[in-house]
From TrEMBL:
<dbReference type="InterPro" id="IPR050490">
    <property type="entry name" value="Bact_solute-bd_prot1"/>
</dbReference>
<protein>
    <submittedName>
        <fullName>Sugar ABC transporter substrate-binding protein</fullName>
    </submittedName>
</protein>
<dbReference type="InterPro" id="IPR006059">
    <property type="entry name" value="SBP"/>
</dbReference>
<feature type="signal peptide">
    <location>
        <begin position="1"/>
        <end position="32"/>
    </location>
</feature>
<dbReference type="Pfam" id="PF01547">
    <property type="entry name" value="SBP_bac_1"/>
</dbReference>
<keyword id="KW-0732">Signal</keyword>
Length: 454
């Protein structure tokens, strides 16, 4: 969704290239899961194997199938694998899968290529679903350039800063309500070593466009940088991009976790849970695990907005959402499943069976008004809702850019570009090269992508 009046990228008959690029879609999170597949009259759903999805798989037969008579067969795969399989099946319009989990990153490409079934009519007719309850940034991010809605969110997330309240208190430190990155760097220095084996902050250093690049790009945005200008001029060696990258690399090298070049979301979550870090900047989704029953740090964590410098906010925006394959012969049943899986009713079900900290939140305004949810998630609920509501994929920085996207550039080639740049940045975090060398190499990679769009 480019800015109004902004020149849109020219595709130059690159459908095959787009399909190939989409097959490379990959980020870093994965969990446990299995696969099953069925044909006939059953609905076939292909989804990522994160914990919330695995929970959905467990509840479907006993509740959705029992209520509707619609049998659902799931194929559940790690994130890298599921993106590849979804791209293959949807691009071929083979119709093997009726529903799949897609994100706000690839939705514009899928919609543009005619691979998805528009959902506007379904959402309008299904008044119980309450489309207006979906948080506006998510509604917008799942609406394509043609103005049509192509997916419904299962959960949404932004990013924020998590910190050990008890450690700060013992050290006589105060976390600002809206910290700047310079303040965070100072606090990381002051809390480094506050407890035995504790580092000041955990930041992703693991290569991957969905790992180190995600938080780093939010720092670039708020420090005045951008990957590309609105005319597709690469800016990875510009002073603002260099300043932000050097700041990030220096911070994690000086006061970050051990093994930072191999640390992603999962490793930082473990470090925070085990008391090995005083602060962690990452996805709002991490709070549920930190506050879960049995967590060693439950009740000890404070939550504040993503640190800023030149912008009012800087949190990212991401959602796993349900898309219907255009070639599916079971779109009516598919909508019934999507409507149930993304409903208020389903959130109530998870809250009652697994606890409210496990609810796939971040998508509905009503979730944050629910007293049961707030009783369990009160420590982070308001900050999370505000972060998602303030996220602006069209204007995430200080200057115009050619595509929508906060922690990514909204073109298919970014899966490869972002990952290759991540490898350069991770090498700088490891001390194998300078930030200047990393960005010089990255600029050349970005120039090749820019040639396709100028």
């Amino acid at each position: 969704m480019p800015h109004p009046g902004r020149r849109r990228p020219r595709m130059r008959g690159r459908t095959c290239a787009v399909t190939a690029a989409l097959a490379l879609l990959a980020t870093g999170c994965a969990g446990a899961g299995g696969t099953s597949f069925g044909g006939g009259d059953a609905l076939n759903v292909l989804m990522v194997n994160n914990p919330q999805m695995v929970e959905l798989q467990k509840l479907t037969a006993k509740h959705f199938t029992k209520e509707t008579g619609i049998e659902v067969h799931f194929t559940v795969l790690p994130e890298n694998d599921v993106r590849d399989k979804i791209s293959q099946d949807f691009s071929n319009q083979a119709g093997q899968y009726d529903v799949a989990t897609i994100s706000n990153f690839e939705l514009p490409f899928f919609a543009k290529n005619g691979w998805l079934h528009p959902l506007d009519d379904y959402a309008k007719a299904d008044t119980a679903f309450d489309q207006e309850d979906i948080l506006e940034p998510l509604r917008e991010s799942l609406t394509a350039e043609d103005g049509k809605l192509y997916a419904q969110p299962f959960y949404g997330e932004s990013s924020f800063l998590m910190y050990r309240k008890d450690v700060f208190e013992k050290q006589g430190l105060t976390m600002p309500e809206k910290p700047t990155w310079e303040q965070v760097a100072k606090l990381a220095e002051q809390t480094d070593g506050a407890e035995r084996g504790m580092k000041g902050i955990c930041l992703r250093g693991l290569p991957g466009w969905g790992e180190v690049i995600a938080p780093l790009t939010t720092v670039v945005n708020t420090m005045g940088g951008t990957w590309f200008t609105e005319d597709w001029e690469p800016r990875l060696t510009a002073p603002e991009f260099k300043k932000a990258t050097k700041f990030y690399v220096d911070l994690v090298r000086e006061h970050g976790e051990l093994g930072a070049p191999q640390s992603g979301y999962a490793e930082c979550l473990n470090n925070m849970t085990q008391g090995k870090t005083a602060m962690w900047y990452d996805a709002t989704a991490g709070a549920g695990s930190l506050e879960a029953k049995g967590s060693p740090v439950k009740g000890k964590i404070g939550y504040v907005p993503a640190p800023v410098e030149q912008t009012k906010s800087s949190g990212w925006l991401y959602t796993w959402a349900w898309g219907l394959q255009k070639a599916s012969k079971k779109s009516d049943d598919a909508w019934k499943f999507v409507s149930w899986a993304s409903s208020k009713e389903y959130e109530e079900l998870v809250g009652a069976t697994s606890g409210w900290s496990n609810v796939p939140a971040g998508k509905r305004a009503s979730t944050y008004a629910n007293p049961d949810y707030r009783a369990e998630a009160g420590a982070f609920a308001d900050v999370t809702e505000r972060a998602i509501s303030e996220a602006d994929p069209k204007n995430p920085g200080t200057q115009p850019r050619p595509t929508a996207g906060i922690q990514f550039v909204g073109v298919p080639e970014f899966t490869d570009l972002g990952t290759r740049v991540a490898q350069e940045v991770s090498a700088a975090i490891a001390g194998r090269q300078s930030v200047d060398a990393a960005l010089a190499a990255s600029q050349k990679l970005a120039e090749k992508v820019a040639e396709e769009y100028r």
